[in-house]
Design brief:
single chain; 232 residues; alpha/beta; six-stranded mixed sheet; four-stranded antiparallel sheet; binds adenosine-5'-diphosphate; binds magnesium ion
Amino acid sequence: MILEVSEIHAYYGLAHVLHGVSLRVDQGEVVALLGRNGAGKSTTLKAIMGIVPPRSGRVTFKGTNITGWPPHRIARLGIGYVPETRDIFSYLTAQENLLIAYNQRSRWTPETITELFPKLAELRDRRGRNLSGGEQQMLAIARALLTGPELLLLDEPSQGLAPIVVSSILEAVKRLKEQGLSMLLVEQNFDLAVELADRVYLIDHGQIVFEGAVQDLLARPELAARYLGVTV
Ligand SMILES: Nc1ncnc2c1ncn2[C@@H]1O[C@H](COP(=O)(O)OP(=O)(O)O)[C@@H](O)[C@H]1O
Ligand SMILES: [Mg+2]
């Protein structure tokens, strides 16, 4: 097991948002966390990263209890995070965005990352603010990989992107999976999540309401209808 989240509770001020969330990611596994808007998906990733530190419960990464650690230490230990806001530096070029994140320990480099995202090679001198949403998403994933993660947290990578762009992101994430990278993927795009994931968790009102293999979820269409509003 690479990541274990046990019974975490998280708050924004007085608002109690996560009510005892538990999940795990095994080595080399792609796990999807699915749920409606406001269910607590992004907060779960922020709690793992220490951005919204859990008030109780425990987060263990590679056997180390990282609960309460600041985000930069968690990142340095090997968790890459791609937030839904992407957070590209708008005045830096694509290449500078990559260089600023690069850790020599990473198995990707600013050069080899373009094998995964060929488009980035053409865009290297373009400033972040002049990149399209899809280009920013590719850059955000590339940048997270250059930090040298053993686990990648992806928050809705397909959000707001045209289908053609979504398919190139899907291809890249599939290749990362083939390379053995462990991932925790938050998605609203059910089909994409089902195509990528080995296992799925459904979250609703800050609580995990289903855990199982993708096949188990597909065999119970009433769950997708109830918790995701989609027809399988
Ligand atoms: N910064 C914040 N301050 C206060 N409440 C927040 C904040 N971010 C999210 N929330 C609330 O926490 C709940 C879970 O949000 P979030 O984890 O972003 O959901 P999801 O990613 O599943 O759409 C929602 O009710 C949302 O309104
Ligand atoms: Mg979210």
